[in-house]
Write a structure and sequence with these properties.
The protein is mostly helical. The protein has 7 helices and no strands. Helix 1 runs parallel beside helix 4, helix 4 runs antiparallel to helix 5 and helix 5 packs across helix 7. The longest helix has 24 residues. It is flat and about 45 Å long.
């Protein structure tokens, strides 16, 4: 969360306030006391949001990112989000829409295929890690 806030804001006081707001509240503290998968899902969504903001900035700055390293990194993050909970699929789709929107905004439609490949590899990694993953969707 610190890295995400550092990516979004420049002032240290805003970063500190964001961290306090995120982690020093009753909801966050109570979810860590109970042995449930909610902290894992929160972590997965924070990681996904961080990489979404990072790659949106790369798109808007005109950087290229269609390497195998980018594909492997984003596919791993995507699989982590997919496996945290089935409800995370909706959040991942919203983040994907943001990235596709940034690509269309910069008229880089030729790189949409890269993110389609990321989705395919993410589903493949999730299926490889847990063979019955797709059975839960049907």
């Amino acid at each position: 969360m610190y890295q995400l806030l550092k990516l979004l804001f420049d002032r240290d006081s805003v970063i500190l306030a964001g961290l306090l707001l995120c982690f020093l509240n009753t909801g966050s503290i109570s979810s860590t006391l109970v042995l449930r998968p909610y902290p894992l899902q929160e972590t997965a969504l924070i990681v996904a949001t961080y990489y979404c903001v990072l790659y949106c900035r790369k798109i808007l700055d005109g950087e290229t990112f269609n390497t195998w390293r980018d594909l492997a990194l984003l596919a791993f993050v995507g699989a982590f989000v997919l496996m945290s909970a089935y409800f995370s699929i909706i959040y991942g789709a919203l983040l994907g829409c943001l990235i596709i929107g940034a690509l269309f905004r910069r008229r880089r439609m030729n790189q949409v295929g890269f993110f389609i490949a990321v989705v395919v590899f993410s589903i493949g990694l999730a299926q490889t890690a847990y063979a019955n993953y797709l059975d839960g969707l049907i």
